[in-house]
């Protein structure tokens, strides 16, 4: 499965071409001899599609410029948010029509979204980071359920909850397990993080990133050796690399001046 952000961006550009062709065609039809009612309907459709085209253009420009410059463009936040929040289902359907698997498109979207994050701009401390895990990270046959309280973990090492609690202790960040989107939103509201490292399947990550944008979310796709939602895993080193990337590092010049 490809993880290239280029797939999502390429499909975005293709969708822009499709909408552009529709807009051009309908505006062209407006100049023919339709009756007043038909002309009015076509005019409304033309205007709506023109607005959609403009949002797509600004959103795509915003995504490409942000990735290129490695810093957010504030005045393009709204079109980027609209593209991320509303166009993913359209892009998935367009990808499916072209023969791409839904998970491929979602994976590409996550990769692209991760590239939009610039740690130097957000200046996040460890205590402002939330690592959000799915409940299936714990072994299904474990008698000590950690969904409601991580302190219930016996640190036996049979699953990766032990390793992840170790990361929480090492960096002093926040760690939580959610059973679904509703609980995840509740945890985010209570924790009020400045950045999130989320572990989940492609579908849940894509939905979560859409829900909280522009809050920085680093998506880490989970491992599913036993199928979805059952005894899943994660590459812990990827999470630690994300933590290290997000934590604000004092510029060397300031360190030298303070030493």
How would you describe this structure to a colleague?
By secondary structure, the protein is of the alpha/beta class. It has 11 helices and 4 strands. A 4-stranded parallel beta sheet has the order 2-1-3-4, sandwiched between helices. Helix 9 links the parallel strand 3 and strand 4. The radius of gyration is 22 Å and the shape is elongated.
Sum up the structure in keywords.
57% helix; elongated; four-stranded parallel beta sheet; 259 residues; disordered C terminus; alpha/beta
Q: Using DSSP, what is the number of strands?
A: 4
- What does the largest sheet look like? 4 strands, parallel
What is the beta-strand fraction?
5-15%
Separation of termini?
48 Å
Overall pLDDT, averaged? 86
Helix content: 55-70%
What order do the helices and strands follow?
Answer: HHHHHHEHEHEHEHH
What Rg, in angstroms, do the CA atoms define? 22 Å
Shape, please?
elongated
Please mark out the parts with pLDDT under 50 across 5 or more consecutive residues, or reply none. Answer: 252-257
Helix/strand/pairing class, anyone? Answer: alpha/beta
Strand order of the largest sheet: 2-1-3-4
Per DSSP, the total helix count is 11
